[in-house]
Amino acid sequence: MCGNGPAAHWTQEKIIAHIRRLRERGEDLSYNRVARQSQGLLSAANYHFGSWKRAIEAAGIDYDQNVRRIPKWTKQKIIETVHTARDSGVDLSWTNISRHPDYSGMAYAAIRSSRFNSWDGALCAAGIDPSEVRRYESWNEEKVIRRIEERARAGLELNSKSMQQEDCRLFNAALKRYRSWDRALEAAGINPDEVYKRHRWSEELIKEQ
Asked: What is the distance between the alpha carbons of residues 27 and 180, in angstroms, rounded to a whole number?
């Protein structure tokens, strides 16, 4: 047996004991949580027991009653979860939400005919304008860079103060995609120091008039 495989550290007894300790501490034993937090344990359980469910049952725990986590997505729960996602700054576009590790389950429940029939319908029920979400989604990194380059070619100001006054949509999209305006400028091949130096020169010229 290969000495570097799961059996080198994890035996069936160790796996069972570890699962029971997690259970006693009130830890979440769902597959997804363990996959994120303890991949080694999960791999060993699959190796020694054939599946995570079988390992749980070997530890004397009823998997279906105590571990399986399939939330009941009522309309109200979906709406509340959409609000939580929005308040956390999560991109609510379908492209993102349908792939999000924390919200994809909710998203697919929302589009069922027994719920809201579409993601737009779920957004509307939550008081969110779907067109606003789609408009925000359209600002990908390529578009942000292109618009910055267009302003540069036109000789327009690119400092953060001017951007907030003249083109707040571009400015906010850049913050979302690059975390800061300076990083967005750098992604477009523009030195932020030169931008602010030019702004200071412009202010000094105005004062001289």
From this structure: 37
